[in-house]
Amino acid sequence: MPTILLTDPFREDFDKLTGIEQKQARKALRMLAQDPRYPSLQIHKIRGTAFWEAYVNMDIRIIFENTGDTLIVHAIGHQTF
Q: Name one GO molecular function term (predicted).
């Protein structure tokens, strides 16, 4: 099971979410730590970068970096097109 490291920018983004969104995000982070292949996370690599994206819900994404046994979580927020 990987270790999850939350960065300061992630914490700032997390604080901007509503209470319900924060609850959903905590659940997604638990699933990410327990089983990164969990289907609802829909994890995929962001093309042309070293970063990965996981779904919290249909609108909110978590951006992280996989360094082997540690996942460094850089950002969370509403998807923008």
A: helicase activity
Structural domain span for residue 66? 3-78
Question: Rounded CA gap, 40 and 48, in Å?
Answer: 23
Q: What is the pTM of this model?
A: 0.91
Tokens representing 28? 């997604």
- How many folded domains does the chain comprise? 1
How many other C-beta atoms can be found within 10 angstroms of the C-beta atom of residue 72? 16
Question: Going by C-beta distance under 8 Å and a sequence separation of 6 or more, which residues neighbour residue 56?
Answer: 21, 24, 25, 28, 62, 76
